[in-house]
Structure formats: structure tokens, C-alpha cells
Amino acid sequence: MHVRTNHWALLVINIKEKEFHVYDSLRNKDRRDIPQYVEELRRYMKGKHIDAENWSLRYPDPCPQQGSGDDCAIFTCKYMECLARRDTQALPFG
């Protein structure tokens, strides 16, 4: 998801656990818009007859953090790669 005007993070819908997971390489920054994205997803899912109203929003660990200010897209792609492979052991790549 595109956060603010200059940052990328990964929002995962975990249907099995009934949770939304956010993988954000700049976790300590103010990200007030992330809950807004989640609310939009909840409304969309409700339209598809999936009740996600009580699903929690989590920021899983480990979640590698970027050192520089312009690597968020690379980190987001790497999060997707590790999760697609179901290889959470590879997540501490940072």
C-alpha cells in the first residue's frame, strides 16, 4: 500500500487468523493512514459477505527495518517474497 506520499508498506489479509498484518520498514513513523486502509478493506470485505469488523491489526515481528530513507519499495517486495514462499525465517533480511 502507498502510505502518505512517499512510502510503501505491505498490508496482508490473514483470513485464517482473522487479522490484518502490516509489514512496514519504517514502523516508528507516524502512519495514521494505515488504519484508514484497513477500514476501507473491512468495508470492501463486508460487501463480499466477509465480516472483518472485529479482526485485529497487527505489526508482526520480525519485520526488518530500513536504514536509509529510500529503500521501502525493496523491503516491501522482499516481505512479499518471504511470505509467498512461507519462509518467515528469511524475514530478518534487513
From TrEMBL:
<dbReference type="GO" id="GO:0005634">
    <property type="term" value="C:nucleus"/>
</dbReference>
<dbReference type="Pfam" id="PF02902">
    <property type="entry name" value="Peptidase_C48"/>
</dbReference>
<dbReference type="GO" id="GO:0016926">
    <property type="term" value="P:protein desumoylation"/>
</dbReference>
<comment type="similarity">
    <text>Belongs to the peptidase C48 family.</text>
</comment>
<dbReference type="InterPro" id="IPR038765">
    <property type="entry name" value="Papain-like_cys_pep_sf"/>
</dbReference>
<keyword id="KW-0788">Thiol protease</keyword>
<dbReference type="GO" id="GO:0006508">
    <property type="term" value="P:proteolysis"/>
</dbReference>
<dbReference type="GO" id="GO:0016929">
    <property type="term" value="F:deSUMOylase activity"/>
</dbReference>
<protein>
    <recommendedName>
        <fullName>Ubiquitin-like protease family profile domain-containing protein</fullName>
    </recommendedName>
</protein>
<keyword id="KW-0378">Hydrolase</keyword>
<keyword id="KW-0645">Protease</keyword>
<dbReference type="InterPro" id="IPR003653">
    <property type="entry name" value="Peptidase_C48_C"/>
</dbReference>
<feature type="domain" description="Ubiquitin-like protease family profile">
    <location>
        <begin position="1"/>
        <end position="83"/>
    </location>
</feature>
